[in-house]
Design goal:
This protein is mostly helical and 88 residues long. It has helices at 8-19, 24-31, 35-45, 50-85. The protein has 2 domains: 1-48; 49-88.
Length: 88
């Protein structure tokens, strides 16, 4: 996945400028982003503070780690079932 050239803190700052009354097109032109990118950011980070974004990132990382653990366990269980059945 491509890394954004903006940090989450910068994105939240840009969204705060929009909430303060700056126009969308002017804001996008000033920061060199497309209107589509702005609205994607707004749907993901809208109404958040920088600390909320950090918490969200930590939760996403933990969720990714836990999903990997579950997938490994399922694979291990399937392997044991195949070995126990003797059909290998």
């Amino acid at each position: 996945m491509r890394k954004s050239r903006f940090t989450e803190a910068q994105i939240v700052g840009i969204l705060k400028q929009h909430e303060a009354g700056m126009g969308t097109k002017e804001l996008c032109r000033q920061h060199g982003i497309s209107v589509t990118t702005f609205y994607k950011w707004k749907s993901k980070f809208g109404g958040m503070e920088v600390s909320d974004v950090a918490k969200m990132r930590a939760l996403e990382d933990e969720n990714r780690r836990l999903k990997r653990i579950v997938a490994d366990q399922v694979l291990h269980i399937d392997t044991l079932k195949i070995a126990a059945s003797g059909n290998f």
